[in-house]
């Protein structure tokens, strides 16, 4: 795994998301009560940013385009119209730095 520094922990307030650019496109980093999760930024149903055009409530992000919902912990669909889950990316924190492995995206089982 190759991790890259993408931001500082303080760049993502609790209940918010941050969009970062990776080798496979944009990735969203969500802060759920101090725990960070990295997913693909685009909704799997429509071409819409989840970090810039979504609403995070707990660990569920709602796409504002068609109101589909995903769990940011697992990437799984929680409300239609999306059928496909979000791709997840390994994330770790070193000091104040947030690091993401852009090359090892996966779908939760």
Automatic annotation (TrEMBL):
GO terms for molecular function: 3-phenylpropionate dioxygenase activity. It is an enzyme of class 1 (oxidoreductase). Its EC number is 1.14.12.19. Signal peptide: none annotated. Residues 4-100 form the Rieske domain. Pfam families: Rieske. InterPro entries: Rieske_2Fe-2S (IPR017941), Rieske_2Fe-2S_sf (IPR036922). Keywords: 2Fe-2S, Dioxygenase, Iron, Iron-sulfur, Metal-binding, Oxidoreductase. PANTHER family: 3-PHENYLPROPIONATE_CINNAMIC ACID DIOXYGENASE FERREDOXIN SUBUNIT, FERREDOXIN-RELATED. NCBIfam families: PRK09965.1. This is Bifunctional 3-phenylpropionate/cinnamic acid dioxygenase ferredoxin subunit. It comes from Modicisalibacter tunisiensis.
